[in-house]
Amino acid sequence: MSDKVVVALPDQSNEFQHLQMDDARAVAARYGIEIDLLDADRNAVLQIQQIFKYIHAQGQKPRAVIVEPVAIEGMERLTQKAAAAGIGVGLLNTAAPYIDSLRRQYPQLPVFALGSDQVEIGRMQARHMRLLLPAGGTVLYLQGPTSAGVARERLSGTQEVLAGSAITMVVLEALWTEESADQVVRKWLRLKTTEGLRIDAVACQDDAMARGARRAFEGTPEIARQWGAVPYLGIDGVPSVGQRMVKDGLMTATVVMPSNTGPALDAIGRWLRSGTMPAASIRVPISSFPPEEQLRPR
């Protein structure tokens, strides 16, 4: 087998995925690993088909596959098939209770899950809301696709921390992109149910959607006049994008979630070089930007 690793990402539609691609290339170069970067265009079936082509390939197969699933359905079977073909698997940002049994079945292969605690990311963003709105209020909340476990886990953490508070959420679903958030919010603003509604903050499950929501509000002058300069909250915190938006006053805070592809490839690289087996579960720490203690009520 060649030292090739397949990195399968959901899409290339936002800056966090661009960061992950750049990180993958940098770490792969450091270890001398050949990588194939796959873009599933947010299509779960396509993503599984892409990876199965490598699993069923004639001749040399990749040493490992690193995948951030578009959806969790089908991942257990895919992981099982890859391991049976002698291919290691790293799953990014997804719950995978079957990892331990696969590691026992294939002890010679790196089979692991890696990522940030998505529920804790939701909790941190909810703490941002509570710090900014201590007296309560209404938050427009943009969630990623409900088919994505990441989106559901972030919402769960947010709801946990907001329980018992005077903060209520209006939840809309978008596709992790600025354009989709812009369209979803503009459509929502045209509904009769928004008449007379006051929004006190906008919280989004990634920074790109925060930009789109802001664009929709600013493109609707009567809404901009009615609700004024509400705080915007995001997630991802890419230094050149999300953190820059906070510094420029376009967002109030973001949750910084480091790239996962670099740490995953680092784990694979150490296994290839020295046989060091990665842990079954690897956590990548998150942080608040700015620090939570610097946030003040509106």
Tell me what the structure shows.
The model has no long low-confidence stretch (mean pLDDT 94). Strands 2-1-3-4-5-11 form a six-stranded parallel β-sheet, sandwiched between helices. Helix 10 links the parallel strand 9 (232-236) and strand 10 (253-256). Helix 1 (15-31) packs parallel to helix 11 and helix 2 packs parallel to helix 3. It has helices spanning 15-31, 44-55, 75-84, 99-105, 118-132, 149-162, 178-189, 207-218, 221-227, 242-247, 261-274, and strands at residues 4-9, 34-39, 64-67, 88-92, 111-115, 137-143, 167-173, 201-204, 232-236, 253-256, 281-283, 287-289. It folds into two domains: 4-116 and 259-286, Response regulator (Rossmann fold, 3-Layer(aba) Sandwich); 118-256, Response regulator (Rossmann fold). The chain has 298 residues and is of the alpha/beta class.
What would a concise description of this structure say?
This protein is of the alpha/beta class and 298 residues long. Helices cover 42% and strands 20% of the residues.
Determine the fraction of residues in helical runs and give it as a percent range: 40-55%
Care to count the β-strands? 12
Structural class: alpha/beta
**Second CATH tier, the architecture of the largest domain:** 3-Layer(aba) Sandwich
What would CATH call the class of the largest domain?
A: Alpha Beta
In CATH terms, the superfamily of the largest domain is: Response regulator
Terminal CA distance: 58 Å
CATH topology of the largest domain: Rossmann fold
User: What is the typical, i.e. mean, pLDDT?
Assistant: 94
Radius of gyration: 20 Å
